[in-house]
Design goal:
It contains 18 helices and 24 strands. Strands 1, 2, 3, 4, 5, 6, 7, 8 and 9 form a 9-stranded mixed β-sheet that branches. Strands 10-11-14-12-13 form a 5-stranded mixed β-sheet, sandwiched between helices. A 5-stranded mixed β-sheet has the order 18-17-19-20-24, sandwiched between helices. A hairpin with a 2-residue loop joins strand 3 and strand 4. It binds ligand 28F. Ligand 28F binds next to helix 1, strand 2, helix 2 and strand 7.
Length: about 625
């Protein structure tokens, strides 16, 4: 019974609830068209469907119209207290009554039995009676206008892209549904309709990721009549991509944290493929195959339709019903194995892909073990030659600066505190780990130096307890090259050493771009904006103040003492800690694969969609 906090995710959950009610009407076969309008103020929305229309008859026991019962009765019943609903967690299924209670105003309009009815609410309370506003109406359906309560939400500005992406996904999951989205702020209009359903969605996801399929036709299953009237739609296709990509949904609602339906799918894939490989004796004798090898490169979509789904976890995006795992696995396994038997070329292509994954894993494990062996054999002896290590051996006080280029490395070595600060200079461009396997990553000198210096292994072999520094600080020039190298390093750390980021060990140094001297005072500015702010402050005190300004071309140009005073000294420096907020994990994942993946058009779209966030472009 949660809304997902009072930030953007919570705000958008209000919209998803209303849309999901309209989608339910379509899934049940009564509606085919949904219209969503984001109004000019960007803070209010109208959703309408051409379904049956919420019933308006007088409720037999409550003696008020059914629609009023639905919009004012909170699931928990009893007195509404907004704090019960405003904690982080999913919204699913708490019903339109919570949307009503958390909206400054809501207007419900129903077309039904040839008439049109309307009722207005404010913060969940009816401010008019349900009244008939027309006696002649064609068609039927429900329209809901709502304006979220600015006293409750930190922000009431809706994000059109988030809305568009969620709506389009609904139409991929329900091939006969049309959703029109009108953004009255910009005048843009989108009409979403994907007849091909989840197959089309899968093809879209493969194209988006530039993933090359290893077999021509995807596995597709639409299974009815499962336990408790449940039904499931699944599609799978193996590709050359380096990792598995599964998108799971329940009743068309995204479950980005997976859950028992996704576990059931993974079980079915593992046992069907394993049994196919055994039956056709396709495995090399001594090659040990893992579940991950079997699923490496597979793209999958699963949409489970069921009554009374239970969600759990921080963001309520994980399905919790325990019996679902075996129900889903049972429904898919046999069909998948028969599909492989009926398409031997596909079966062989998948077998080849699985064997390739197992071989690469054994190779990278050997590489990781050799790195670990080296760093285990003796802590000091096998460190990279370019590392200027620190004297202390207690990780909690030790810091590793990864510095761009030898000249900056030189300044940093002179300016550092040798007791606790180590310097690892990087030469040229770091490999883009987003598009590389672990083996290729470990063959890259720069990255394997980082792995060796940090000392806790990499990928599955990573052991945080062996971490040699509790601060890993990226120190790059404050220009586009420096930002690019930082991005490449962060991509590597995110893909192959993510616990370092999740546990808060990774930082970005903030070297100054400008030095400004006014009289006896010296100021350091991070960037243009900082420089303007400091200039304004100096002028405010003395409008004729003379200001000498120097722009640093790069770290290597900085005197060691200056670098120490502005960037290295823990007492004076400014560090940016790298973190992934819980409700932004999916956004992080998609942003990294968009920006660092093979698909240049996805990068182009990202840049064009965020261009007005750029202030001082440095190309
Ligand atoms: C803009 C959002 O909420 N559409 C909805 C219906 C239709 C029925 C319904 C909804 C029956 C008694 C529980 C109509 N006729 N769009 C929407 N369309 N709810 S919400 O019924 C609610 C249930 O209370 C509906 C016959 N059966 C159901």
């Amino acid at each position: 019974m949660y809304i997902g906090g009072t930030g953007k995710p919570g705000l958008h959950h209000l919209l998803w609830e209303v849309v999901d009610n309209a989608v339910d009407e379509a899934t049940n076969g009564y509606a085919s068209q949904i219209d969503v309008v984001l109004h000019k103020d960007g803070k209010s929305i109208t959703v309408s469907d051409n379904g049956r229309g919420i019933p308006v008859d007088i409720h037999p026991t409550k003696k008020i119209p059914t629609i009023e019962v639905i919009l004012t009765t909170l699931h928990a019943g009893g007195k509404f207290d907004s704090s019960n609903y405003i904690t982080s967690g999913g919204l699913h299924g708490v019903g339109a009554s919570v949307v009503n209670a958390l909206s400054e105003s809501l207007i419900a309009t129903v077309k039904r039995d040839g008439a049109i009815w309307e009722q207005r609410y404010e913060r969940g309370k009816p401010v008019t009676k349900l009244k008939k506003i027309s006696s002649s109406s064609r068609g039927s359906g429900t329209t809901m206008f709502f304006r979220p309560d600015a006293d409750i939400f930190e922000t009431v500005e809706f994000d059109p892209e988030t809305i568009a992406e969620n709506l389009e996904t609904k139409t991929y999951l329900n091939g006969s549904l049309r959703i029109a989205f009108k953004n009255e702020v910009t005048g843009e209009k989108h009409d979403y309709h994907h007849e091909g359903g989840i197959e089309e969605y899968l093809a879209h996801k493969l194209t988006e990721a530039k993933a090359r399929p290893v077999h021509p036709d995807p596995f597709v299953l639409r299974q009815e009549g499962m336990h408790d009237g449940a039904r499931v739609e699944v599609t799978l296709q193996w590709t050359e991509a380096p990792r598995e990509t599964l998108h799971s949904f329940v009743n068309g609602i995204p479950t980005s944290d997976g859950g028992t339906h996704e576990q059931g799918l993974k079980d079915a894939i593992r046992s069907a493929i394993r049994s196919y490989l055994d039956t056709h004796d396709l495995l090399p004798k001594k090659l040990e195959i893992s579940a991950d090898d079997i699923r490496e490169g597979v793209f999958g979509i699963i949409n489970l339709f069921m009554v009374d789904p239970q969600f759990q976890g921080q963001t309520k995006e994980k399905l919790n019903n325990p019996e679902t795992k075996s129900i889903v696995s049972g429904a898919i396994r046999l069909e998948l194995e028969q599909f492989l038997n009926r398409h031997p070329s596909t079966g062989e292509a998948i077998a080849t892909r699985v064997i390739q994954a197992a071989r690469a894993r054994h190779a990278s494990r050997a590489a990781a073990n050799s790195v670990r062996r080296k760093s285990n054999v003796s802590h000091r002896l096998n460190l990279p030659g370019k590392l200027a290590d620190c004297a202390s051996t207690s990780p909690d006080e030790c810091e590793l600066f990864i510095v761009e280029g030898d000249s900056a490395g030189g300044s940093a070595k002179q300016g550092r505190d040798r007791a606790t600060q180590a310097i690892l200079p990087l030469r040229g461009k770091v490999l883009n780990a987003e598009q590389a396997t672990l083996k290729k990553v470990m063959d890259n000198k720069e990255l394997s130096n980082v792995v060796q210096a940090v000392g806790c292994g990499v990928g599955e072999a990573l052991d945080i307890s062996k971490l040699r520094y509790h601060k890993i600080i990226l120190l790059m020039d404050a220009d586009s090259d420096g930002h690019h190298i930082s991005t490449l390093l962060l991509t590597f750390l995110y893909r192959y050493m993510r616990p370092l980021i999740e546990e808060g060990y990774v930082f970005i140094a903030q070297p100054p771009l400008f030095r400004m001297d006014s009289g006896k005072q010296t100021f350091w500015a991070l960037d243009e904006a900082d420089r303007e702010k400091i200039t304004a402050e100096i002028r405010k005190k003395n409008k004729n103040a003379k200001i000498e300004m120097q722009r640093f071309k790069g770290l290597g140009e900085m005197m060691p003492q200056t670098l120490k005073d502005t960037t290295l000294d823990p007492e004076k420096r400014r560090l940016l800690q790298v973190s992934i907020p819980t409700d932004e994990r999916l956004l992080t994942e998609t942003t990294i694969s968009q920006l660092m993946g093979k698909d240049a058009s996805a990068r182009f779209d990202f840049i064009m969609n965020n261009v007005d966030e750029v202030h001082n472009l440095d190309v």
